[in-house]
Amino acid sequence: MIRRFTMLALLGLFGGCSLAPEYQRPAAPIPATWPESVQSGGVRNAINMNWQQYFSDPRLQALIAVALQNNRDLRIATARIAEARAQFGIQRADRLPNFNLAATRNASSTPAGASVSGSAINTQRYDVAVSLVSFELDFWGRVSSLNEAARNNFLATEAAQRAFRLSLISDVVNAYLSVLELRERTRLTAATVGARGETRDMLMRRREVGVASELDYLQAEGAYQAVLAERANLEQQLAAAENLLDVLLGQSLSGIKDLPQGRSLAGQDIRPDLMAGLPAEVLLQRPDVLAAEYRLVAANANIGAARAAFLPRITLTGSGGTASSTLSGLFDAGSRAWNFQPALIQPLFDAGRTTASVNIAAARKVIAVSEYEKVIQQAFREVADLLSARDKVAEQLAAQTANAQVQNQRLKLVEARYQAGIANYLEVLDAQREAFAADQREAQVKRLSLGVATQLYKALAGGINDSVQAENTEVSGIRDTARQAIE
């Protein structure tokens, strides 16, 4: 009997067909090339470059490693992979017959007043059997379609985790760069506070002896108070940036021991010299685009499962073993027992429930197509914007650096003229303001340039091959943790 059950199960397993529509990837609703204003050239391939190669600051590398280990959102995303993989395993199990080994004893007693013979009847039965548990012959591909949908939902979860992991790396880098920028600007502001404080004190003494006017002193005092306010503002921004970095790291930055020495903002070697290639080649490798397509394939498979509900379902239930009225006779000759219960179920009337299920599956596929196309369009715009910004920000940084040098040289000349009595204090004050603003702006544009390089690495799916291996390690850790909790 077991051989017969197995043959029928194999017939259902290999003889089925699928009612799901043939999947065809939608045409990407984007141009075949980047805009003419974009220079897509580069020398390095982001996909094969892990984040340790691209972000070379040893302190930044240590912080990224801490974030990948401790960030709670990444832990959730990684645990969802393990959850989706387990759900896929459950669904996949329905494609094969499930057998149980059961040993049972049934005893009953019928009183004399209720029996046909007028005498009390006592019966008992012992059974040992291997049973087949309601296995569906998948002639119409319903089970295989559900299996395909579960598999692609699992793959979508994996891709979504890779996308989040890449975003987390980018967020940590940007937060770290913001901290460096604000520390640099705070340092510049503190130096300016000291210089303007000395100037104010000097003018106060000169006013007391009648050499400087009250107006010069008030102008110096106003400039001093303005830079004090700017310092307080920058210190508040720095505290907020450090708090954000702590959240991304999953712990306090001050609590991390043995951090290597980091580089200054100007010493960061994050170069945006990445190759873009053609849009279709680049965008289809992004994990967010892959996740959207996997969800689309799953929605397509669900249509097949919904359509199959219109057709008959054939299920097999049965068992084979031995039975006896006594425990000692279970394995005697002639004790073999079996039962076989095939069932065919054909829906007749369900008030439109099955049709509505097909309509729901079809509508969800339309939604999945639109979401897939939307993700591709957003990805195209993101990459195009960053490729355009790469060159323009580089030009801006070169000009701003030159401007800062000019303004600081001008300040030295004006201060020398003032000391010689050739220039008035208004010229000095104007030169101080311009030099201070130029230094501050140079730090901001440098941070902007590094941010563009960081975002470009993320937009071009940087290190995606490296993240697959890391993801497998992280998921294994989640499974081990769950297993220990069960034990």
Give a verbal description of the structure:
Strands 1-2-3-4 form a 4-stranded antiparallel β-sheet, covered by helices on one side. The longest helix is centred in the middle third of the chain and has 67 residues, at 142-208. 63% of the residues lie in helices and 10% in strands. Helix 3 packs across helix 5. The chain is of the alpha+beta class and 487 residues long. It has a domain at 26-96 and 146-181 and 246-311 and 357-486: Outer membrane efflux proteins (OEP). The mean pLDDT is 85. It is built from 11 helices and 4 strands; from the N terminus they run H-H-H-H-E-E-H-H-H-H-E-E-H-H-H. The radius of gyration is 37 Å and the shape is elongated.
Produce a short descriptive summary.
The protein is an alpha+beta fold and 487 residues long.
Uncertain residue ranges: none
CATH topology grouping of the domain at 26-96 and 146-181 and 246-311 and 357-486? Outer membrane efflux proteins (OEP)
Number of E strands: 4
Could you state the order of secondary-structure elements as H and E? HHHHEEHHHHEEHHH
List the strand order in the largest sheet.
1-2-3-4
Ends distance: 38 Å
- The radius of gyration computed from the alpha-carbon positions, rounded to a whole number of angstroms, is 37 Å
* CATH class value of the domain at 26-96 and 146-181 and 246-311 and 357-486: Mainly Alpha
* CATH superfamily descriptor of the domain at 26-96 and 146-181 and 246-311 and 357-486: Outer membrane efflux proteins (OEP)
The structural class is alpha+beta
Into which percentage range does the β-strand content fall?
5-15%
Number of helical stretches of at least 4 residues: 11
Helix content: 55-70%
Net shape = elongated
**CATH architectural type of the domain at 26-96 and 146-181 and 246-311 and 357-486:** Up-down Bundle
Mean pLDDT: 85
Main sheet overview: 4 strands, antiparallel
